[in-house]
């Protein structure tokens, strides 16, 4: 099912505002007439292979059948990855890159697609233009072609193509390349070995990134020209410092490459250890058993910038130390990915942009500032999507906290003591303010978003907010009563 921009926007309205909406509500959200809404719904249902996706319900309006919509979306993605000029060119380019620098017959590459000479010529021109952006050349001699250039650039393009245009499925099938069961088991065992050495798991999507990297290496060995005597470009001073800083991760890379040498029955070039090392340090990994060097000052400064600017834009305090540490663990490897142009595909990007549009736009704005302030490469939408999820989490953590007001007769002394005791008993609560009952009566309109008031005095005025009378010493009995009250206002 191919949807127009307007039809896609209509579907998004249901997802954003509710699965059942009236025609009038849809018209107001979309800023169009109800007639346009009815016509658009009719077109969507006519284009569906699953039957009516948007169902009219008497007395309610229209309901999006979410199960049918998901089925259509999955089928659409499958169709998109299996056909089309772009997918064809990517499949051909992957075949060339895996075999590089060996030349391949043009007829052999294009025969499955039954194309005219004009289309083949156009495809080759587009492929050559694409490769030139990575300083790679498409070389043609007689009826054969090959990709020539730096091995690191070749690996980067392959990884980008796999990450951007394809998803590994349950059988680890990608494009027209199928991995053998032996290779799947071997790569999986390597990932398990890495995790055991680290003492923790490698979370998605970094695990798939490392899987892809190892798969590409095996494929290049089997079909390409990876040799034992392959020249290795000497490391610069910065790269040597990086190895010293993460020397235990580099040793782990050496162990993994040693296992690959045994599996492939050859001695891989020294460069492969460094390539794998790059992927490890560009991944977010909790290092329980591997001790790392002191934190990167640039990553700390960037983390601080992100958290403070997002606090300003979101209007909430999210730059506390626990959040800073959490965000830093993502920013440090992201900084390395930006510098080395390592791609991590965000498969949830579309959903993130739709569901958390405001926060995504705010993170995008701050990311542009970060690029200028810290002089880093452009931060991709995939990376912005990952960052957005952190700030969504912090917001939800703050929103989930119960906001409590503490008051007593004076607002001094006893209420401060009460604050300490309440914070100790209920660290999950947000204590908004400590004040006297008189101060509260004067400024009651300032405290509209309070969930509970703890007071040591009887309040004469009727409150809109639940309140509970407690002892200024906050006894165990008070603690029990507050816990019960919190349970009632969940």
From TrEMBL:
Molecular function terms, GO-annotated: protein-N(PI)-phosphohistidine-sugar phosphotransferase activity
Domain of life from the UniProt record: Bacteria
All residue ranges annotated as the PTS EIIB type-2 domain in the record: 402-490
GO terms under biological process: phosphoenolpyruvate-dependent sugar phosphotransferase system; regulation of DNA-templated transcription
Pfam families given in the database record: HTH_11, Mga, PRD, PTS_IIB
Keywords: Activator, Repeat, Transcription, Transcription regulation, Transferase
Protein name: Transcriptional regulator
Entry-linked InterPro entries: BglG_antiterminators, HTH_11, Mga_HTH, PRD, PRD_sf, PTS_EIIB-like_sf, PTS_EIIB_2, PTS_EIIB_2/3
SUPFAM superfamilies: PTS system IIB component-like, PTS-regulatory domain, PRD
Domain (PRD): residue spans on this chain: 178-290, 294-401
